[in-house]
Design goal:
The structure holds two protein chains of two kinds. By secondary structure, chain A is mostly beta strands. Helix content of chain A is 0%, strand content 55%. Chain A has no helices and eleven strands. Chain A is globular, with a radius of gyration of 13 Å. Helix content of chain B is 0%, strand content 62%. Classes of the chains: A mainly beta, B mainly beta. At the A-B interface, strand 5, strand 9 and strand 10 of A face strand 5, strand 9 and strand 10 of B.
Chain lengths: 113, 115
């Protein structure tokens, strides 16, 4: 059974600090996705990571993928309040166009002034 | 928003009643998905479709059925709703992007409460 584990599940941090969210998965996959969800809203795609060593950056967020370690990280640099949200990683089980995603349970990030 | 709408957006129903949720897309995407989101579980795939009349089960399909008679509509039916099916339901489509990658985009969600 494929498992996708995120940690931490809850993260409270101060503005200006750096932190990393980890996403471990239990089977081979070379496609990993990060999503953001604001309370009461839908999911917004942040990053698609397609190969070992892939690194993507957008603003204060940077995501990376290590397929050998079955690990992806989402690094937050100099956090600001607007980054408060829940972040999900998801692994593509079959690859190709079928796109069956298995999601982690999410990391609820709260950035305090 | 990839042209995805869901209806209804909110519904309260009683245990044992049938419920149908609709997902509508306007951009002719082949793949469509239904997920449910529950606290502490993230999103879990219920069913998905890879074309008209072509559907398959996901991780948590028990108690749910789906139909897709037109490319643009993917229906999720709870034949006899139970309280354990109280959840937020998201529809998604898969869209191809450059470099052979695919991204899933999600609809606004339907909040279903079974009393």
């Amino acid at each position: 059974e494929l498992k996708v584990e995120q940690n931490p599940l809850f993260l409270s941090m101060q503005e200006g600090k750096n932190y990393t969210i980890y996403c471990n998965y239990s089977t081979t996959s070379d496609r990993l996705y990060w999503y953001r969800q604001d309370p009461g809203k839908s999911l917004e795609s942040l990053f698609v990571l397609l190969s070992n060593g892939a690194v993507k950056q957008e603003g204060r967020l940077m995501a990376s993928l290590d397929t050998k370690a079955r690990l992806s990280t989402l690094h937050i640099t100099a956090a600001v309040h607007d980054l408060s949200a829940t972040y999900f990683c998801a692994v593509d089980v079959y690859g190709g166009s079928q796109g069956n995603l298995i999601f982690g349970k999410g990391t609820k990030l709260s950035v305090k002034p | 928003d990839a042209g995805i709408t869901q209806s209804p957006r909110h519904k309260v129903t009683e245990t044992g009643t049938p419920v149908t949720l609709r997902c509508h897309q306007t951009e002719n995407h082949r793949y469509m998905y239904w997920y449910r989101q529950d606290p502490g579980h993230g999103l879990r795939l219920i069913h998905y479709s890879y074309g008209v009349k072509d559907t398959d089960k996901g991780e948590v399909s028990d108690g749910y059925s789906v139909s897709r008679s037109k490319t643009e509509d993917f229906l999720l039916t709870l034949e006899s709703a139970t309280s354990s099916q109280t959840s937020v339901y998201f529809c998604a489509i898969s869209e191809s992007r450059a470099g052979g990658r695919y991204e899933q985009y999600f609809g606004p969600g339907t909040r279903l409460t079974v009393t």
